[in-house]
Automatic annotation (TrEMBL):
PROSITE patterns found in the cross-reference section: AUTOINDUCER_SYNTH_2
EC number in record: 2.3.1.184
Database matches in InterPro entries: Acyl_CoA_acyltransferase, Autoind_synthase
Keywords linked to the UniProt accession: Autoinducer synthesis, Quorum sensing, S-adenosyl-L-methionine, Transferase
Catalytic activity entry: a fatty acyl-[ACP] + S-adenosyl-L-methionine = an N-acyl-L-homoserine lactone + S-methyl-5'-thioadenosine + holo-[ACP] + H(+)
Full protein name: Acyl-homoserine-lactone synthase
GO MF annotation list: N-acyl homoserine lactone synthase activity
Top EC category: transferase
GO biological process, one term: signal transduction
Length: 189
């Protein structure tokens, strides 16, 4: 597995295109999320110049995982789209609290690949570790994420200190929740 991170201007145009196509395949085609997409590419208002991406590829250069990282002192998914997931608590708004979103680790080149299996795959654990380390290297002390319930299993398996910010809710037919991930001092940066 090869992991590359950086803002869109640091990643190649080819990799950015593969990543947005991969996101479309995962979130729209496989998980059936109702997202506004163009030409088979999934991007939204949170894909900006300051957005940091973490992208994993297999040995053939095919994307098999991605994550989007944003500091919460600028617009972000939880704050702008899903604030009710904080259960009335204040929304994070700090350069040292980052949001992890559009996390996926489905290897479509594996015969046993499934979208639900992403929450227990080795790729998912490695990608999550890399994503957290990437945010920590940029000053993050905590991570907040909007995720499907299955991400809890991945977090427990990987040994991360994580807890719900509020109770799960069904939004758009999908059970999701906001989750804090504490960045330990043991994270490699």
């Amino acid at each position: 597995m090869n992991v590359i991170s950086g803002t869109a201007d640091r990643l190649s145009n080819e990799l950015c295109s593969k990543m947005s196509s991969y996101r479309h395949k995962v979130f729209v085609e496989t998980l059936k999320w109702d997202l506004d997409c163009k030409n088979g590419h999934e991007l939204d208002q949170f894909d900006r110049q300051d957005t940091v991406y973490v992208v994993s590829q297999d040995d053939l250069g095919q994307v098999n995982g991605c994550a989007r990282m944003l500091p919460t002192n600028n617009p972000y998914l939880l704050g702008d789209v899903f604030p009710e997931l904080m259960n009335g608590l204040p929304l994070p708004n700090s350069p040292d609290i980052w949001e992890l979103s559009r996390f996926a680790a489905v290897d479509f080149n594996q015969r046993t690949s499934s979208a639900l299996g992403q929450f227990s795959s080795d790729i998912a654990v490695s990608l999550l570790q890399e994503s957290i380390a990437c945010a920590a290297a940029r000053g993050a002390k905590r991570i907040i994420t909007v995720s499907p319930i299955g991400i809890e299993r991945l977090l427990r398996k990987a040994g991360f200190h994580a807890h719900r910010a509020g109770p799960p809710m069904v939004i758009g037919g999908h059970p999701i929740f906001a989750c804090w991930i504490e960045i330990s001092e043991n994270v490699k940066t």
